[in-house]
Amino acid sequence: MASHEKKTNKAHEEKIVENQELNIWEALIPVIVLMLLLAYNIFFKDGEWFGGYSNHYILLAGGLVAAVVGLFNKTSAATMLTEVLDNLKSVLLPIAILFLVGALTGTWLFSGIIPAMVYYGLQVLNPSIFLPASVIIAIIISLATGSSWTTSATVGIALIGIGTALGLPGGMIAGAVISGAYFGDKMSPLSDTTNLAPAMAGTDLFTHIKYMTITTVPTIVVALIIFTILSLTRETSGTADVSELLTVMDNTFNINPWLFLVPLAVVVMIVLKAKPLLALGTGVALAAIFAFIFQKDVVAGLDASWSTALFNMLFLETSITTENATLNDLFTAKGMLGMLWTVLLIVAAMIFGGIMDGIGALGRITKALLSVAKSVFGLFASTVFSCIGLNVVASDQYLALVIPGKMFKQAYEDKGLAPENLSRTLEDSGTVTSVLIPWNTCGAYQSGVLGVSVADYFFYAIFNWLSPIVTLIVAGFRIKIRELVVREA
User: Fold this and answer.
1) Between the CA of residue 119 and those of 116, 140, 258, 292, 416, what are the distances in Å?
2) Distances from the Cα of 247 to the Cαs of 258, 405, 465, in angstroms?
3) What's the DSSP call for residue 50?
4) Class of residue 129 by CB neighbours under 10 A (exposed 0-12, middle 13-18, buried 19+)
5) For residue 49, what are the β-bridge partners?
6) Which whole number is the average pLDDT over 83-112?
7) Taking the model in full, what pTM does it have?
8) CA 390: distance to chain centroid?
């Protein structure tokens, strides 16, 4: 590790020497401008300054400011362009995986895999264990869809209605749903944030997911224990009636256990350490085959030839209409097209980060951060509070991953820490805490969809507020903190 630190520090210092005139305040100018633009967008433009791509344009504007700072301090345009291209090359694989994930969600919907998970999941409901069962159902659906938002907008709404009928407080039910939804969202290879975090940190998808279990599994276990105690100590009335939802799904899809062979095959490939593209590609191919074997009526309902239907599943937004409005939201897939927003955000972040790196700004900021966060724990704590702070200030979950990810990447390398330490911390503090901020896009969405204020569900969103605490405990006691492996030339 000492040898690695010597090499990386030497390279780091060389980059700073290339631009000796750049001081810390000049390095922070693009970041400050970025924060001001984000604040203006949030408070004066309701987050729609440039339509749905506001954050993308703001990141590019920050990159333009960084370029001006660089030119003023005698950094050539060629140097900045080289860093941008290197950054873009580094995320080609994550981008390919994201597009494949989009195809996977489409084929898993039309093959009946996602509906089957919902169908069997809803049948485990029982009034005496309603809260932990709600957590588990939300986990299953969000793992299958890769989306906490879809989970809340579908089974979440259903569980709120059922739980309220049983006499349970809305905040308690919402907290259970959100805890499960964000666990699945955080751990699913189909989730955009689960792909975004390792892309920013410089590790691969499955290494990231596996390393997250160190903090994520204990956190969800604690949440389940608390929800079980709450369920067993509260009196309920009525029954958990999900018959209508089950009937609609049964009438729409051919639901059977054979469908689970597809996700099982993907899990086996992941365990056997197959390449992410191969594992996810296999999931897409098998699901497409299963769609034409088991769901002939569903595919026929698309009013298109089989080749066109397959094209739509893979690339475009398609939906299946049922008798239940709640299920209609769940049975909508956006294919590869649905991943375009996240892919373009990554590209914008790489351009901003590349220019910042090229002018030596990230090096200066990293050096300043390391002078304050001298210990490993201090580095983890700085990351946690930066992510939470950006969730508060920028009001966007993605930026809470992108900006700290780019800023702290070099710092983790300089400490001899593997990139999965950073990617896990980004998720433990950036992804899950967004829903706890009322004005954050995630907090506003979940509150609006579930009909429960953030203040009411905050305490019961146990998984979400406990996650950053657990990651700090793990860092403080140096539990399985993975060091950077340096391969000898």
Assistant:
1) 5, 11, 14, 20, 47
2) 19, 45, 37
3) E
4) middle
5) 51
6) 83
7) 0.71
8) 15
